[in-house]
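Why run this: before we spend reagent on co-expression, it is cheaper to look at a predicted model of the complex and decide which construct boundaries make sense. The entries below are exactly what would go into the expression plan.
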Amino acid sequence: MRRCIELAQQGQGSVSPNPMVGAVVVYHHQIVAEGWHQVFGGPHAEPNALALLPSGVPLHDCTLYVNLEPCSHVGKTPPCSRLLIDKNIGKVVIGSTDPNPKVNGRGIAMLREAGISVETGILKDQCDALNKRFFTYQNLKRPYIVLKWACSNDGFMAPANRERVQISGEEARVMLHRWRAEEDAILIGATTAIMDKPLLDTRLAPGKNPLRVVLDPNLRAPQLPGDFQTLIMNTRLGKNEGNFEWIKMRQDFAVADVLEILYNRQLLSLMVEGGAETLHRFLAGGFVDEIRVIRSKKLRMQTGVEGPKISMPLIKSEETNDDTIEYYGKEIVTCG
Ligand code: AOF
Ligand code: ZN
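The model came back. Tokens follow.
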């Protein structure tokens, strides 16, 4: 199952809104074939693994391990459970059950009804953590939400005049770009868009650029630099111009309205990069799964815009040369 997780992770960044899935076939205690879901719309992990099975290996004497319940629905590909039944697999070992209402236990039931021995819940916590974004999206009908901010050693995000001050060091900036590549969307408020004019891209790390989302009810902010996909949530106009899309919202629209739009666009995850007011709105609504704080080791401000109070437990912290990276969450946030 650990190998399944490793394989699955190779789909990171190219399978969303699908989950990351890896599968291995074991014959006489040895892995004889492996596969993973590589790209959205492409074949699932199980057919990819079975396609590489060496000839002469009898599948009815093999066990297939997979970190997510094999699917039971006809989607972009035929159901994996059907394939495993037709190929006469000996046994199936599963990590997480699939919360997608099209599957949700039916894959396991199909296999069992066909007389196949099925074991479930193996390394379940790690398998659930691997697909925390997909699970949150399916179960809560909203993207998985990471709140992120950088602050001085004494907890200030910006000086009182809101001028841009470089808080985090080089290593933390590279880390942030890696984080961005892991999420489907990045969101900021109008004040941050006006004061920082951020690119919100991933130029310092490999990986795709996430969709950019700006909350700008009264269209106060100039257009963000860079020609990347961008949504501007506002109350004035709806229009499309190249990569930029203005979405007209009702007056006094709430965070929940924004999340509903992101959900309908099948965005599994969102990183909120500030500023303080936007972070507060997410926290006040309880729309948070994880918080990451980049805290400077040396910089002290004494006054300014304070970072939000955190009521989640500290899960771990990491040191870079200039900063301490604090991770807060409800549960285990790693899947290693
Ligand atoms: C599996 N194996 O490797 C994956 C599964 O649109 P489709 O047809 O690709 O189906 C997507 C759904 O299938 C996805 O939402 C999830 O429920 C399941 N993903 N299932 O048996 C896999 N990636
Ligand atoms: Zn499948």
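The chain has ten helices and 17 strands. The domain at 138-329 is CATH 3.40.430.10 (Dihydrofolate Reductase, subunit A). Bring this page to Monday's planning discussion.
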